[in-house]
Amino acid sequence: MASFPAPSVLFDNHGRPLEYLRLAVTDRCNLRCFYCMPEEGIQYLPKQELLTYEEMERLVGIMAHLGVRKVRLTGGEPFVRRDLVPFMERLSQLPGIEELTLTTNGVLTAPYVPALASMGVRAVNLSLDTLDRARFASITRRDELPRVLDTFYALLAAGIRVKINAVVMDGQNTQDLLPLAELTRDLPVDVRFIEEMPFNGHSHAATLPWNHVRIREHLALNLGELTPVLTRPGDTASHYTVAGHQGRLGIIAAYSRTFCGTCNRIRLTAEGGLKTCLYDQGVLDIRALLRGGASDEQVAEALQQAFRNRAANGFEAEQQRPTHQLSFESMSTIGG
User: Where is the stretch described as Disordered (predicted)?
Assistant: First the structure.
């Protein structure tokens, strides 16, 4: 690793610190959630087009020198890629990386929970849109809810904080908001409800029947007063406590984009595309740099240049891309 100077905090052109990398290790997934990709799946990248673990490790090291402190592994589903745990162990030991975590659908995760705990993973985001087995199979097109719940309870038993992410979809799972929210009554979990986003591999409706306002009103009407929790800069979720509940509720305005002003995250797709906003079309081909012989210093400069030209918010980023692209992009390709 090169010994170039590193600022204590890296800022974009709008004065927002960039400390959080969401790193997609694969575009493949073992579920077919209809809001993420079409039923037939997507055309997966050939293996040689994916970043290797060695390339990702090098890149994370460079970003750590620049000020990135937190790394979240995403996909697709991270655990469909072989040898993920040894890669995570190496990342956890990189100087400057203070927090390593992941987002998973939980189908394959349970056997790896002890390893996650031993390497110091303190929190895991678990994608779970319903506790009803039939609706789970309908939404994901796979009958895997029992295995997901095995992972959920294994994480809790290992002392790993669980954040459940549930996408709220009109006519699909709105009846599941309250059963999911009730998990916080007796368990120390965060249950976070996410506005549906237009990354499903198909066209997307222009309106959003269940936005963050309606979700909050629905929860408060049925559970009682939601007491806001002070959020940290960079948080995407507005968190709430409910009297008598051990855990917390959260609402993520992913489509309304109310949190852009403090966004501290960047994304790297499985093929090495840098996204400084979820809604942009990709701003830098890092794979080409790495495989073209660029030095660590040259990669760092290219990254900093991209960060100096970051969109002010998701709406500006969306306006800068071709209008036909957004609805037909898949979250599995972007990185969850």
Answer: 314-336
